[in-house]
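From the pipeline queue, job 12 of 40. The input is one protein chain; the requested action is below.

Action: predict structure.
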Amino acid sequence: MRGVRRKRRPAGHSLTNGEEFQAVYRAGRRFVFPVGVVFVLPRDDARLRLGIPTGRRLGSAVVRNRLRRRFREAFRSGTADLSGGADVVIVPRSHAAAAEFSEIVDAVRSALGLAGIKGSPDAPRGSKI
């Protein structure tokens, strides 16, 4: 029996170096939530790029990797109906490991909505952003 294939983000859809992170920290808007801090810097193109820094203070490698997976999935599911580009940095807080997944998704969606990243024109009315 074969394993389940994971969906991967295409190349170029991640923040990769310190300069990109620093640009988002300096010029982006900051939104504070119980599960973490979300920084959003709108872009001119339609690409959404994500960075999730996880330092050792968050716990062991297992905990840090789990946090990255959960926040990445929350970002992916929360941005499916969005148009407009942005660089997004999500800094998890230590107690985010115990948070419900729905809390993480709500925080990411709220931050993108507050930052002005709009839903696509064909998105259903009343969609939660």
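Job complete. The mean pLDDT is 82.
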